[in-house]
Amino acid sequence: MQPDTRTHYGTISRLLHWGMALAILLMFLMAIAWHINARWQSLIPVHKTLGNALLMLVLFRGIWAIASEQRPKPGNRAVWLGHLALYLLMITVPSIALIRDAARGRDGLAENTLTRFGDDWHGRTAWLLLALIAGHILMTIIHQRRGEKILQRMAGRRNPQNFHEK
């Protein structure tokens, strides 16, 4: 298992990053599927389970990032703010759904202020998250094309002789 270094993310950071990416991709695909065809609404419980798992992964990744002594630093303030916005939305989107689901059926009502809020804002914030993810991917491609080797930090192989780089 490789640790984080100043130039590369380690095994745990990479597993968390790509696990979160996969969970988000699957959740969007499921949501699109059941909006296109109601028969796919049977995927809603899986979507909710993945959302809860994503929330746990995001929180764990945040703790892991704070605890890591060695890890790549953001290139500039825009990079830092972009990642902060991604993390805030990855917490906000499932939290809104959890609030909505907890409020459903309270006071004998199927719809109340919190469920309406959740119905209105869960999807909106999810689409905003998708837009930020698209920007994240686009910026990775731009930096990569400039020769900055950004993708190698999270996906590339590390040179074995640099395994203990500081």
TrEMBL record:
Print the keywords alphabetically: Cell membrane, Electron transport, Heme, Iron, Membrane, Metal-binding, Transmembrane, Transmembrane helix, Transport
Q: Name one GO cellular component term.
A: plasma membrane
Q: Could you tell me the Gene Ontology terms of the biological process aspect for this record?
A: respiratory electron transport chain
Q: Quote the subcellular location field of this record.
A: Cell membrane
Q: Which cofactor does it need?
A: heme b
Q: Highest taxon of the source? A: Bacteria
- Regions crossing the membrane: 15-37, 49-67, 79-99, 125-143
- Any GO MF annotation of the entry: heme binding
**Name of the protein in question:** Nickel-dependent hydrogenases B-type cytochrome subunit
What organism does this protein naturally occur in?
Cardiobacterium hominis (strain ATCC 15826 / DSM 8339 / NCTC 10426 / 6573)
